[in-house]
Write a structure and sequence with these properties.
Elements (H helix, E strand, L loop, with lengths): L2 H30 L4 H38 L9 H18 L3 E9 L2 H6 L2 H18 L5 E6 L2 E7 L7 H13 L12 E9 L6 H18 L4 E3 L2 H22 L3 E10 L4 E13 L3 E3 L1 H10 L3 H18 L10 E5 L9 H9 L9 E6 H6 L1 H13 L3 E7 L5 H7 L4 E4 L1 H5 L5 H16 L3 E5 L4 H10 L3 E3 L9 H17 L1
Parallel strand pairs: 4-5, 7-9, 9-10, 10-11, 11-12, 12-13, 13-14
Antiparallel strand pairs: 1-3, 1-4, 2-3, 6-7, 6-14, 7-8
Length: about 500
Amino acid sequence: MSPRRTAAAIAFLYLFLGYIWISFSDRFVFTLAAESSYLTQLQTYKGWAYVTVTAFMLYILAHRALQRERNFSERDGLTLLLNRHMFERELNSELAYAKNKDHNLTVIILNIDGFKQINSHVNLEAGDRFLVQIADIIRDSCHQQALLARFGGDEFAIALPDSRWPDAVVPLIQNIQRRIENLHVAEAPRLNFSSSAGISLYPRDGNTANTLIDAATLALDEAKNSARGSYKLFNAELSQIVSARAQLLLDLKEAVAQKQLTVVYQPQFCVQKNIMTGVEVLVRWHHPKKGMIPPSDFIPLAEENGLICAITDFVMRQAIHELISNELLYRDIKRVSFNVSAADFNNSESCERFIANLSSLPGDWSVIELELTESAALLNLEGIKGVLNVLHEKGVQVSLDDFGTGYSSLNTLRLLPIQEVKIDQSFVKDIVKNKQDAKLVRTILAMAQALHLRVVAEGVETHAQANYLMNAGCEEFQGYLYARPMPIEHLITFIRNLKQQRAQS
């Protein structure tokens, strides 16, 4: 029953009870003042007026209360958009109408890229205000016939009745994405946002609300994995791709739990002195059925699903254990670099985690270096700064990986305790032929020299690249030209052979 009908029923019941009350009370008054017709009429009118006015007020109050309760059950309390349950219900009604009228319909699932940064690194209130702004943008961009909902978190849904693809849909999505990119959080102006969208079409992709929502969600997952700020239309192949990714995630969770991951080491060199300056520790996953899974496939998956911290902890503990047990650390290896993610700094226990991972070191912690990419640092600069400052006081060194690919390199160097920068391999690859890359590398080297920073060029694969970098003033190199990543057994042999070569020379 609707709130209006329920309120009317309550008011009618009150009128009926009022009628009974008036009838009995009038009889009592008539008994006392039977000779005064004026008094009896006044009593009757007064009673009816009281009951009628009270019933009317009761109807208004009941209607408002019931309407508010219904809104709470049907709408998202923060944005006042429909909730998922009501969106599905209304969407099924629209689909029935579209079927009768032979109309089409589009479902869009929208997700904000990087929204968790606000809740994690600013506060929940800022996140709520941001979501309200997103809802206002969606509401303002869509026509009145559109169904708008917030499914929870930063996921929104739009249903566009009788909308043509792509003519009417693509401009709408692009407009919403453009307006979201222009939003900023006052407490963290450095944070930049984008949105990804998945799209499904009726009747092509399904004829029920759940089918269309699931199809659009699959397309959204593909959009988020392809590029930030993109949109994808559902197709049959996506179902297989997303299913495979979901299975890979389950396998990765088991691999982490069962300690199926391994670590390998890629040496770094000072060529002019003919010495190995350190090693970078990398993680590898040999799937029992699929063989070697590239890190580019499972590391982003781990970051997106909360597994990266467990992987980081395993890599640090395992590498330190292997290097110490084989008596390589401090003697043959003076620097061990670990890659860390922005997700490794997302909670208050991050500093304690790193300290616990390094607690087994028998000597100075300056042998440890944490490699952080520029893009990761910019996601949570203040939080990362606090943790790195504590670790730096204990001797841990910090390297800025993929240097030059971010948009705020100098500011990052200024705010974080950096001792090393790594020239990104994308600049090294064409350094001999590309004048722009060559100029940029020389600028990085000059700046690092002025700031007394160590520089490591990664991805060095040819002698031409190495010669150019040496002539430009770079002293340390990492890449396939010198050594590929190798397990601990091969590293032991590699170091032994390197010692023999130096002794013979």
